[in-house]
C-alpha cells in the first residue's frame, strides 16, 4: 500500500507555513510516505505575503505553484512523488477548498477566481476536469458548502491547533454521498504525517492523483 499526504503547506507560499522543501521531505521520508500533495493557500493573505500584484497581465499560476515545484525537485532525492494542489478561499467567506487535478489556466487569474466565489467557480472547475474537496467544513468560522457544488469533504483533519469537528464533517459527507479525504494539514514542525490516505496504486502525476481520489479506491489513515 502507498501512503499519500493530501493536505500540506509550504513556507514559500502559505503565510502560515513554516516548513521548507528539505525539512518536509526529511520528515515524510522518515514517516514512510510515498507521495505528497502540496495545497498552499490561494487567498488574499497569500498574495499579499508573496507580494504578487494581481492587477498585472499574465498567468499567476506558476508563481503560485513555487512551493510545489521546490518540493517536486527535493522529492526526487527521496523517491517521493509530489502533486500540485491548492487550498482556495473565496472573498466573503472563511471556507477553504482543496483543489486537485487542475490545469494552469483555471487558477491563472486569482482576482477573478476569488471575487467570483464558489458558485461561479464550480462549473469552471468541473469543465476543467478538476476535483474540489471542502477542507474542515465545521471548523470555527467555516460552514459546509452546498453539496451540489462539491465533490467531497475532508472528514479527518488533524491540524493540532484547530478543532475541525471531524465527526460532523463525516456525517455531512455520508448524508450527501460525497467523497471523503483525510489530511495532516501540515504547517509546522510536528504536524507532519499524522494522516492521509493509503492506496494500492501510486499516481504518476497530479491528474492521476485527482483520478485516484475521484475513484474512491483508497482508505483513510486513522491515528491509533
User: What count of helical segments does DSSP give?
Assistant: 8
Can you tell me the residue ranges where pLDDT is under 50 for at least 5 consecutive residues?
A: none
CATH architecture: Alpha-Beta Barrel
Count of separate structural domains: 1
Q: So what's the oligomer here? A: single chain
Could you tell me the strand content as a percent range? 15-25%
Shape: globular
Mind summarizing the main beta sheet?
10 strands, mixed
Instruction: Round the mean pLDDT to the nearest integer and report it.
Output: 97
Q: What would CATH call the homologous superfamily?
A: Metal-dependent hydrolases
Distance between the termini: 18 Å
SSE succession = EHEEHHHEEHHEEHEEHE
Please identify the top-level CATH class.
Alpha Beta
Estimate percent helicity.
Answer: 25-40%
Overall SS class:
alpha/beta
The CATH topology comes to: TIM Barrel
Number of strands: 10
What is the CA-based Rg, rounded? 16 Å
InterPro entries: PHP_dom, PHP_domain, Pol/histidinol_Pase-like
Domain PHP: 6-124
Pfam family, one: PHP
Protein name: PHP domain-containing protein
